[in-house]
Specification:
alpha+beta, seven-stranded antiparallel β-sheet, four-stranded antiparallel β-sheet, about 15% helix, binds 2-oxoglutaric acid
Length: about 220
């Protein structure tokens, strides 16, 4: 499992993304794209995990994690969150008035956490996991700026399964600035102060009929 991350070959020689690592024989632009460079930085690393490994990792995460669909209140009415989620980490995590108790990462998550922490040189100690059953599952506009998170906030987001668009807009604006296709096995890195200035979403779409898992690694 996860023995050969593509990133071991495709080193990104950037001040924050893969700091201190050498290039492989691929060019920086081929592997890592800078999505946002104003008011925080956001980088997209295609194929951080290779195709075969993505499939087995997806299946393992889907069967081993304790997925749940919690209720939330919107304008006094109760709805279920439009996806399944779960939390693993050294600290309790709260968002949308849902409290997710701390719990130890299973080995499968711990291995991914270690690979990403080593690559980014950031010691993550929590992960919010999302399971989108199809394009009708979504994640509304928000920032990852919960009080539990250590400042400066750095977040690494690994995507597996169906490709979905990650919408970006400036905080306080209603117009989407851009959208990034999050491919199977890709890693998105949002560097401080990105969460202070940008909001993101995974919008509903009729085009997607298969499942997607997203892991966002955090520090608290
Ligand atoms: O599913 C994604 O790519 C985004 C997840 C997300 O925004 C979050 O967990 O806060």
């Amino acid at each position: 499992m996860l023995s050969t991350f593509k990133s071991e070959v495709h080193y990104a020689n950037h001040s924050q993304f893969g700091k201190g690592r050498r290039f492989g024989h691929y060019s920086y632009d081929h592997v890592v794209k800078k999505i946002i460079s104003e008011n925080g930085e956001c980088f997209y690393h295609q194929e951080f995990i290779s195709g075969d490994e993505c499939d087995s990792l997806f299946l393992e995460l889907k069967s081993e994690l304790s997925w749940r669909q919690d209720p939330i209140q919107i304008f006094g009415k109760e709805f279920l969150i439009p996806r399944f989620h779960c939390w693993y980490g050294d600290f309790d995590y709260q968002y949308s008035n849902i409290t997710l108790k701390k719990q130890r990462m299973p080995a499968v998550l711990e291995k991914v956490r270690q690979e990403i922490s080593d690559f980014l040189k950031i010691e993550f100690n929590g992960v919010l996991c999302n399971l989108y059953r199809d394009g009708q599952d979504s994640n509304g506009w928000h920032r990852d700026n919960e009080k539990e998170l250590i400042r400066p906030i750095h977040i690494a987001s690994l995507s597996l399964g169906a490709e979905r668009y990650f919408g970006l807009r400036r905080r306080g604006e209603t117009r989407m600035d851009q959208k990034v296709l999050l491919e199977n096995g890709s890693l998105l890195y949002m560097a401080h102060p990105f969460q202070d200035h940008w909001e993101h979403q995974i919008a509903k779409t009729k085009k997607i009929t298969n499942e997607r898992i997203n892991l966002t690694f955090r520090r608290g």
